[in-house]
Amino acid sequence: MRMGESEQVVDLFRNHYNIPLIHEDASELFLGKLNGVSDPETKRKIIGGTFIDVFDECAKRIGGADFLAQGTLYPDVIESVSFTGGPSVTIKSHHNVGGLPARMKMKLVEPMRELFKDEVRELGRELGMPEDFIRRHPFPGPGLAIRMPGDITPEKLNILRQADAIYIDEIKKAGLYDEIWQAFAVLLPVKTVGVMGDGRTYEYVCAIRAVTSTDGMTADSYPFTHEFLGRVMNRIINEVKGINRVVYDITSKPPGTIEWE
Amino acid sequence: MENASQTLTPNVNLNHDHILILDFGSQVTQLIARRLRESGVYCEIWPFNDADELKIKAYNPKGIILSGGPCSVLDDDSPRAPTCVFEMGVPVLGICYGQQTMVQQLGGVVEGEVNKTDGSREFGRAFVELTSESPLFKGSWKKGAKEQVWMSHGDHVAKLPEGFSPVAKSEGAPFAVIANEEKKFYGVQFHPEVVHTLHGAELYKNFTHNICGCSGDWTMASFREEAIAKIRAQVGKAKVVCGLSGGWIKRHGRFASRSYR
């Protein structure tokens, strides 16, 4: 989770909606299993598998559940026409929590399976959700682990969370958050030499990324001004111990992807 | 499992006026659905080869849209719309490939490009000249006007089926827009669903609201009430688990009876 995110979600559900939300902190379990792993696909598999284990465990603790609610959207269930695989159509099987319903013998509740993303945002407003939650940028399932090429350590996660929070804060202050599809910081597994005060430093490189897109299928990097980028660089290096260089990722999709792993 | 969840929850959205979009594999078919939803019309996208007469009649659409697609109607085994589409007495709108297959299925003629320089191929921005009035352009395009559209075609309609007359032409397509006003069948060679076709959204609105008679009753305000009722009916007093946002926070309890109140 990003900085302060767990607290925000817990607060919204417990205090705003009066829903007795269970907040399970399994960070040690995840970090233990990810120790020394740097291959992106292996990371994703470990995180997906561990997620199911923990979810299953929590569900058992409350005496099991008959239904799993998940946020499947219409683009996830539209069957795509395929001309290469013969006359039959390719049917997408989409599960946000892969394999979980079958393993736990649960039925699905998918209230949004006929809606597009912008309709879901509209529905959120109808339900009186805070605008901050409605407009929140997409966040990948495997979380910050895939915004950190190389191995994952609590120390690096802490550095990344701080840098990301500063970057997003500056974007919001500049009034650009809603113009951008997705913005985030990436911590590179590379240290470079710098000079701060009178001393030589040898610390991590932080890449910042921001893209515009209408659907996530194609994307362009956001044309920040140099002045804005300079301000972000200044704050990250001054405020985050462990980073001494900031770079801006200008790759479009294609050929790049929005996330780094 | 997808099917199981579908049978459990009847599609109450069909209580609203609704349109069927038959997909022939265009990259932008989803945008057709977006334009319709934006004007308050519920619609579903079905693959052309997963839509038999029984299924279409049970769905009972107020109108049918045939999407574009990558094939040529001149090729053997290229896709066709189910014949019932033209026999149900509902308005039909064919887009690009959808227009061409409609023309061919109703007895007209489609021609391929003679060579790549004969001017019949049009990709990207093009202009159509309105040669006749049509309900399709009510309140937007006038006879004699030249309007910007987005084209992406090699083949074009060369001879109209009986009952059709031309409404607009372009440089590469003598029948860029065609209509059988009596049967309410329309065909356009361009793609009104992309933003580069100026006033394309109005064309869809004219088709769904004025020609098919949809009332625009699909709103998130109405969806909210119906979705809540649907979840209550599906879940009853059973337990539902739901993971939240990338992390995995969850709650338990009688989801349907409490969390949506």
Label this structure with key terms.
heterodimer; A: 261 residues; alpha/beta; four-stranded mixed beta sheet; 9 helices; 38% helix; B: 261 residues; nine-stranded mixed beta sheet; two-stranded antiparallel sheet; 7 helices; 13 strands; 25% strand; disordered N terminus
Inertia-based shape of chain A: globular
Total helices of chain B: the number is 7
Strand order across the largest sheet of chain B:
2-1-3-4-11-10-9-6-7
**Count of helical stretches of chain A:** 9
Write up what this structure looks like.
The complex is a heterodimer of chains A (261) and B (261). Chain A is globular, with a radius of gyration of 20 Å. Chain A has 261 residues and is α/β, with parallel strands linked by helices. In chain A, helix 2 runs antiparallel to helix 3 and helix 8 packs antiparallel against helix 9. Chain A contains nine helices and seven strands; from the N terminus they run H-E-H-H-E-H-H-E-H-H-H-E-E-E-H-E. With 261 residues, chain B is of the alpha/beta class. In chain B, 25% of the residues lie in helices and 25% in strands. Chain B has seven helices and 13 strands. In chain B, the strands form three sheets. Chain B has a nine-stranded mixed β-sheet, with helices on both faces. In chain B, strands 5-8 form a two-stranded antiparallel sheet. In chain B, strand 10 and strand 11 form a beta hairpin. The longest helix of chain B is centred in the last third of the chain and has 16 residues. Chain B is globular, with a radius of gyration of 21 Å. Chain B starts with a helix and ends with a helix. The N terminus and C terminus of chain B are likely disordered. At the A-B interface, helix 1, strand 1, helix 3, strand 2 and helix 4 of A face helix 1, helix 2, strand 2, helix 6 and strand 12 of B.
